[in-house]
Specification:
This protein has 5 helices and no strands. It is mainly alpha-helical and about 160 residues long. It is elongated. The relative contact order is 0.16. The N terminus is likely disordered.
Length: about 160
């Protein structure tokens, strides 16, 4: 029994480190987003804005991809390992909420990888900001539901 506890601590304690790194990436994404959003208008051929936009797009894709291909899977596995049926059910609803914001992020990235026309960037950043706010809130609830809720069982 002690060995099972140790294994669980090793297995799911590592998830905390993965989540911490991912949340650090979220912070960097937000900094880039805010930096670009500070500008009230964008001129075509604004090299600094284009550079900042490329950086934001890369961070956005990396963050969204890590969530879908690493973090959410880890959280679901943890919920399954702890037999948390209620948490897994709640996570399904949260995942649908998160998934809707993925389309906004991917569309934003695709649009600005294909164009140097920044005439609609202010509005697109606003739409992305709303989607990110929704996404971050749902992700935080998922972490709380499927990871933080089991911390005491790891001690």
């Amino acid at each position: 029994m002690l060995e099972n506890c140790k294994t669980a601590r090793e297995r799911w304690g590592g998830v905390s480190e993965i989540i911490d790194r991912w949340l650090h990436c979220r912070q960097n994404l937000l900094v880039s987003f805010c930096h670009l959003s500070e500008k009230k208008s964008f001129a075509d051929r604004d090299k600094q804005a284009e550079s900042n936009l490329r950086e934001l797009c890369q961070q956005l894709v990396d963050y969204v991809s890590a969530g879908h291909f690493e973090i959410y899977d880890q959280l679901i596995q943890e919920g399954q390992a702890f037999g948390d049926a209620a948490g897994l059910q709640q996570a399904k609803a949260l995942y649908r909420e998160i998934d809707a914001t993925t389309d906004v992020a991917v569309d934003f990235n695709d649009k600005y990888q294909e164009t140097d026309d920044l005439s609609t960037l202010t509005q697109d950043l606003s739409n992305l900001g709303v989607a990110l706010e929704t996404r971050f809130a749902a992700e935080d609830r998922m972490i709380d539901t499927l990871h933080t809720a089991h911390k005491n069982q790891l001690a």
